[in-house]
């Protein structure tokens, strides 16, 4: 079984050229988009909208994979938004996930996620897999939960690009 290195990255806080330079510096060769909706509001992050993102990655020789099944469903997201609202935290400013989100994501997504099958489904020559969503801090995003499960289950190296 192949053992890729895993990196995680979010878009918030990055300028376009910094974002793509960070991927190049990490030697990412497979970009796994784990967002449910592949769009980002606002001109600053338009480069992370699906078609533009995929085109730029292709220019860089980075393969693209969308795994919507690894995104939190609407109920899980709404539970997090309710916690954010009660704590008066804007989504883009969130620094951690709520315990409710972590539990629900674990039960609804990670409990049936097979790390070995996932990695075996990747192209055989994958060296560095990037797990991507929008939040700046990995601690504020489901990509951290997914990455930690992969790293723990398979002994994979994990790095967060900030």
Could you characterize what this model shows?
The chain has helices at 16-25, 50-60, 74-86, 99-108, 115-121, 142-154, and strands at 5-9, 30-33, 63-66, 128-132, 158-160. Helix 2 (50-60) links the parallel strand 2 (30-33) and strand 3 (63-66). With 162 residues, the protein is an alpha/beta fold. The longest helix has 13 residues, at 74-86. It has one domain. The mean pLDDT is 95. It has a five-stranded parallel β-sheet with strand order 3-2-4-1-5, with helices on both faces. It is globular and about 45 Å long.
Short description:
It is built from 6 helices and 5 strands; from the N terminus they run βαβαβαααβαβ. It is of the alpha/beta class and 162 residues long.
List the total number of helices: 6
| Class by SSE composition | alpha/beta
What overall form do the CA principal axes indicate?
globular
**What's the Cα radius of gyration?**
15 Å
Number of strands: 5
Average pLDDT, all residues: 95
Span between termini? 29 Å
Reading the helices and strands in chain order gives: EHEHEHHHEHE
Instruction: Characterize the biggest β-sheet.
Output: 5 strands, parallel
Low-confidence stretches: none
Q: Biggest sheet: strands side by side, in what order?
A: 3-2-4-1-5
Task: Give keywords.
162 residues, alpha/beta, 5-stranded parallel β-sheet, 6 helices, 40% helix, 13% strand
List the helices and strands and how they pair.
Blueprint: E1 5-9, H1 16-25, E2 30-33, H2 50-60, E3 63-66, H3 74-86, H4 99-108, H5 115-121, E4 128-132, H6 142-154, E5 158-160
Parallel strand pairs: 1-4, 1-5, 2-3, 2-4
Helix pairs in contact: 3-4
